[in-house]
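Input for the complex:
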Amino acid sequence: MYNYKNLSDPELVDLARKGDHIAFTQIYDRYWSVLYLHAKKMLHDEEEAKDIIQNLFYNLLQAIPTLNFQISLSAYLYRSVRNMVLDAIRHQQTAARYLESFNQTLQENHLITDDSVRERELERLIENEIKRLPKKMREVFLLSRKEHLSHKQISDRLGITEHTIKSQIGNAIKILRMKINVVLIVILYGYFF
Amino acid sequence: MEEAEFKNLLGKYLEGNCTKEELIALETWYIKEGNKDHIQDRGLNDAKEVIWNRLVARSGTQLSEVKKDNKERSLYWKLGIASSILIVLTAGFYSYRAYRNSQTFKTSSLRTENILPGGNKAILTLSNGAKVVLDETHNGQLAKNSGIQIVKLSDGQLLYKMSDRKNSMGSTDYNTIETPLGGQYQIILEDNTKVWLNAGSSLKYPVVFNAKRREVELTGEGYFEVSKDKQRRFLVKTETEQVEVFGTHFNINAYKNEHLVKTTLLEGSVKVSKKGTEGFAFLEPGQQSEFSKGKFQIVHVDAEEAIAWKNGYFVFDNDDLQTALRKVARWYSVDIEYKEELGDVQIGGSVSKFSDINKVLSVLHLTTGLNFKVEGRRLIVSR
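Predicted:
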C-alpha cells in the first residue's frame, strides 16, 4: 500500500489513470482549495465556484484514463479552471461588469505576448491563494511541490544500480547507529567519571 | 467592445477559434483581473465536503469505494470525545465525594444542552428480538443469522454478506434498523441493494430475500440503490404507499408528520401504487410522485436535491418554512415552537448538515428575515 501523501503529482496521475481512486482523492485534496478560492474570487460567487470545481474534477475523473499528460497536472488544472470561469462569465447576466476592465486592458496595450510567461503568471495567480489557506490545507497543497523519487528513480538518474542505492542507505544507517552508540557511551562515561 | 461582442469572443476562445491576438488579450486580461484586490471573506467553510459529496453523487459508482476524509476526522473526533468523557467522569466522582462529605444539598442549575448535528446512529433489532446499538465503536462481525454474516463497517455502514448458502435457504428471519432523531445509517442488504436511512426512520427487511420477491418496509425517509435482479422485483412498502422496482435509484420520503409521501426517481424506473387499491403511477428519472389523500401527483424535480440529505447537506428548494424546519428538527433533535402566526414563508438555499445549528439558522434568517432562537432543546421562531 502506498502512502499517497508522499507521492508526487505525476505518480498520482499515473495511479489514477489506472483506476486508483484513492490517488484521485489525493489529487482533489491537494488542489481543490486553491482552485476553489480562485474561482470564487473571479466570479464573486460561492455557489458558482463550488459548481465549477465539482465539474472540473468530474471531467478530470472521466478524462484521466485516456489523458496523455504532456503538460503537468497543475498546468492542466489551472487552464481548466480559467476556462470554466470564462465560460461562466460568458453565461452571466453581469458580463458587463468584466467588460469594463477588459476594455481597459485593451486600451493600456500592455499585453503579455509570451505564452510561457502568461502560463507562469496564471500559475502564480492561482497559487497565491495558498496565503489564504489555513496551515493544514496549505501543507496538503505543498505536497504537490515535492518530488519524491523512488529508489529506482534515483538510480536511474545517477546511473547506478538500485541495489547500490539500497545498500548505500543501509550502510549509512549502520554508520549512524554506530555513531549514536559511541555518543551514548561517551555521555555515560562522562557522567560516571 | 460591447457586451455581446465580448461574450462572442469568450465563446470563440473556448472553442479554440480566436486569433492569436485575441487569445493574448483575453489571457492577459484574465491575469490582470485576477491580480486586482478583491474584498472577500476567508470562507472555505464546508466547501471541500460539499463539492466532494456532489462529485461522488454525480459519479455514481466510480468513487463509491473511497471513504472521504473520515479516517483522519473521526480519529480526532474520537480522541476528542474520549477525553471529554474522561474529564466529566472524574469531575463527577470528586463532586460526589464532596457532596457525601458535606451532606449539603445543592440544586443543580439548568444545563443548556449542546445542540449538535446528527451522526451515524441506529439500533438494529435481530430476528430473535435482541437489540444492537450501532454507534461509532465496535466494527466487525456483529452476528450471524441464517447463513448470513452481519458486519458493521466503519463510517455508519451495515453489511449483510452471504456466508453459508445452504443454511440461508428458506429463511424467514427479519431484521429492523431504526435511526433516532439526529441519526442516520447506511445498510447493504443481502442482495447488494444499498439503503441510506435518514433521521427518525426505520427499515424492516428479511435477512435473506426469498426466491420470488424482495420486500422491505420503510417509515421515515430512505434512499435506495436497488441491485438489478430481473427475476425478483423489489418492493418498498410504507404505511400508505408501495414502490415497486427492478433495479434503480430512488428516494422515498414518508415521514408521518409530513402530509405528502414523496417518491423521487433518480435512475431506472419505478411503479408507485396506493396500498390496497388499483391506483398507481410509473415514474421516470427526474420525476417525483407526491401522494396524499389517496391521490398521486407527478412533478418534475431536481432529483439530486431530494437526496441532498444523503450527501451531507440540507437543500431548501422553495420549501415552506414548516417543512424546512421539520428537516432541521429531525437532524438536530430539537422541537420547533412558533411564537406567532407567520403565514406563507418560502425558503431557499443549501447548507451542510454537519454545520453548527447556528450556521443553519443564520442561513434561514438571511433568507426569511425571521428570528430563530435556541433555548434548551427548543427552536423558537418569531418575527
